[in-house]
Amino acid sequence: MGSSTTVPPLAEIPENPARPAFNPAWLVVICTLFAAAAQVLLKFGALHPLPPVHLSDSASLTPFLSALLSDWPLLFGYSLHACNAMLLILALRHGHLSLLYPLYALSYVWVDLLSLHYFGEHMNIWRGAGIALIIGGVAMLGKASAE
């Protein structure tokens, strides 16, 4: 008979006592930059022309997949998302979720600012207020976790 693996209750999972060689908060800030760059690249990739796909015609899938696999901004964007996920996992192993995940909200700020630059989007009072609220919220949570 096979051996069964059981997952210990959360209370029994020990904290990782080894101090990492990196600051988890800074690692998450780097993750936000990766996430923002990935989003911009996905947008650029989405702007590339793709041949139409007709689900009733399986022959239309080959040109579509070929065009999709040659869409370098799209592929690089997804690669950055994968790198982002790996770095986030490393940060979460050594940091407090209640501090790190709100920091991740900074990716929305970077995406908004990059959209202004690369896609000619416009800032208005509501977007500015949203950015200010995100930055203010991250700063307040950082202050609260430092105490």
Write up this protein.
It is a single chain. This protein has one domain (22-48, 68-146). Helix content is 67%, strand content 0%. The termini are far apart. Helix 1 (24-46) runs parallel beside helix 4, helix 1 (24-46) runs parallel beside helix 5 (106-119) and helix 4 runs antiparallel to helix 6. The longest helix is centred in the first third of the chain and has 23 residues, at 24-46. It contains 6 helices and no strands. It is an all-alpha fold.
Write the layout of secondary structure elements.
Elements: H1 24-46, H2 61-69, H3 72-94, H4 97-104, H5 106-119, H6 125-146
Helix pairs in contact: 1-3, 1-4, 1-5, 4-6, 5-6
N- to C-terminal distance: 52 Å
Tell me roughly what share of residues is in helical segments: 55-70%
Number of helices: 6
Structural class, from secondary structure content? mainly alpha
List keywords for this structure.
147 residues, mainly alpha, 6 helices
Summarize the entry for a quick read.
This protein is an all-alpha fold and 147 residues long. Helices cover 67% and strands 0% of the residues.
